[in-house]
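Lab notebook, bench 4. Still working through the backlog of constructs that have no structural model yet. Next entry is a single chain of 255 residues. Request: give me the structure tokens for it.
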Amino acid sequence: MPSLKDLRNRIASVKATQKITKAMQMVAAAKLRRAQEAAEAARPYSERMGSVLANITQAIGGGGDAPALMTGTGKDDVHLLVVCTAERGLCGGFNSQIARLARDHIRKLLADGKQVKIICVGKKGFDILRRDYASMIIDRVDLREVKTLRFVNADAIAKKVIHLFNEGGFDICTLFYSQFKSVISQIPTAQQIIPAGVASAPAEAVDGGNAVYEYEPEPGEILSDLIPRNISVQVFRALLENAAGEMGAKMSAMD
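Model written out:
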């Protein structure tokens, strides 16, 4: 039977742990407000970008003027997965849920005889996926030193992906992240970003109706500039959604 001294030590240890988790919860709450505001601010721009691309795509009818980033290679043999998770833990099942979605997708692709390549953004996803798929991981993006996410961080990732596509490294690219809904709700999401056709634009964003647009310069030239930018925008949105979701999950985990 534990002595009185042992019981006192245990009580003191529990109280110390409670103080630590309470402090971590308060820090997460402060960071959540900023992260949530950033994620919500990025959504309208991201969705409107999808609307613009959808309208231009419809204007040219997916013809020969459309760039390869939109039309694809005509094959679906090699798939690139960009898996975005947090750099740190202590956030419940936040990271494991994203990794599980990616893992299920990998299994389906492999069962269909496809080749898979993975870029891990964030340490936790890398740690989980390398257990079974280390040979498929071609790059890891480390954001541990990034205090505040900027567009330049997403742009660097997008440029890596686009360069790999232009070199013939893959046919289809899918982005994995967690869409922030609330402190207690984050939805693991898979979004195809290459080919960036009309299907990849959010349905609610395509709101042109029967409006007729005139484009200057030609639609194909506009798409060649907009599609790489849109890929960067979608990656940035994913990183911001993840940041908000991570802080929400931390708050719940420390409760």
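Notes after review: The first strand starts at residue 78 and ends at 84. The chain is about 55% helix and 15% strand. Flag for follow-up if needed.
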